[in-house]
Amino acid sequence: MGQRKASKDGDRKVGRRALLIGGTVAAAGSAVLARDELARLWWRTPGVEKPREEGAVDYTGARWVAASDANWRRADRPDDFGIDMVIIHVTQGSHDSAVKAFRDPGHKAATHYIVRQDGRVTQMIRELDVAYHAGNRDYNERSVGIEHEGFVDRPQDLTDEMYEASARLTARICARYDIPVDREHIIGHVEVPGTDHTDPGRHWDWDKYMRLVRRARTTPA
């Protein structure tokens, strides 16, 4: 969230790739292959979405609290938009105030996850979907956003429990989407082009965080 209210994703038009399957299948073997391909890829056709379970989380141990559907848009990532980035935010407030903001349709912004100072994780948007968190449509579509409870000018808010829990979360996201564990792909909100935000701020310890992510990335889940 940073020091100002997050900008919304200005264009909510869903940019799904249409899968066009046509032609005549002459051989029986080819027909079987075509049926298998259709069965596997049916959800890529326009207007069709992956099966969803209400309240399901993408990260084991996370608590689900749904964000307002005004603060994100439905997608089928990574098949319609590839995911190659994690964006780090600081809430500029408490965990509960962030949850309240993300459940407010007038806020027009939310991240996928919030990490509390005690290390507990709340998921508010599925990774399948595009959260309005970066203030940049392209970065929204290609990233997962993680908020951290606290204020950018209070280094004491950035607890060891928060760093460690967030690093484990980021490591699992990177493993799931084959995202390189480096500073080109794990960035702060302040580094998003066109943003007017400053988070995670000068007190965020990137060396420590990246070390923890790399360690978690090589540790069995």
Order of helix and strand elements from N to C terminus: HEEEHEEEHEHEH
**Nearest-angstrom radius of gyration?**
19 Å
Instruction: Please mark out the parts with pLDDT under 50 across 5 or more consecutive residues, or reply none.
Output: 3-44
The CATH class is identified as Alpha Beta
* CATH topology grouping: Lysozyme-like
Strand coverage percent = 5-15%
Helix-residue proportion? 25-40%
The multimeric state of the shown protein is single chain
Task: Specify the CATH homologous superfamily.
Answer: Peptidoglycan recognition protein-like
| Structural class by sheet pairing and helices | alpha/beta
How widely separated are the two ends? 29 Å
Mean of pLDDT:
84
- General form: globular
Strand order of the largest sheet: 1-5-4-7-3-8
- Number of DSSP-assigned strands: 8
Summed up, the domain count is 1
